[in-house]
Model the fold of this input.
Amino acid sequence: MYEFIYETLSSLGYTHPLHPTLTHLTIGLTMGAFIFALGGKLFRSGGMRMSARYCLGLALLALIPTALLGYMDWQYFYGGAWLFPFKVKLALAGLLTALLIATALLAERAEKRGTAPLFAYFLCLLCVVGLGYFGGELVYGKNFTAPAPAPPAPPAPLSEKTDVAPELASEGAAIFSSNCAMCHSADTTEEGIGPGLKGLFKRAAMPVSGRPASEETFRQQLRNPFQNMPPFPNLTEAQVDALIAYLKTV
Done:
């Protein structure tokens, strides 16, 4: 079902993950809840305490579609691979759900005394900071590669590059951008979420698996990936040909 959603959006020109937009909503509301609770404590304002409780409720409601879209993105872009940031984010999402519910219940009881459970609000804040941090690690972290669109492959002299049709390589660059760039970089050999693929077909062996760096090995790893890499059954033979053509130019 979700493949249809992503394919439809892709046909309209939207190829990005869906999760980040709603993540900002949940994080913002949780931060707002803490700020209002702190204001209610400092200024003894019942209105600010009530606003904090409203923010908690809205954050809890927003968490449901946020988690759903996060699961869809994880399955579609990463093939459900159990990468460390995803493990932490799943644990923190469960913790945040429990904290939001507990804090809402505590806040309702504390309101009768004209106070707010500030520490509980603070724990919710720490939880969303952790979620934001590990979400950022997937894109900007030291050990992970940012998912950047791959540049079109320029034609090169045959003395330097394999005999590859520029049009086919350009098509492969687009396929790489929408399917591979989330985990791999085409302009470096450095490790990110997955290994950098610059000069892949000039190497003696494939990174990680150690298998011979050949077209056949590449095709096999797309069908039956090694370790955490997800499979790509959606790619046609023609698309794989274009992807190989592109990787031969980097």
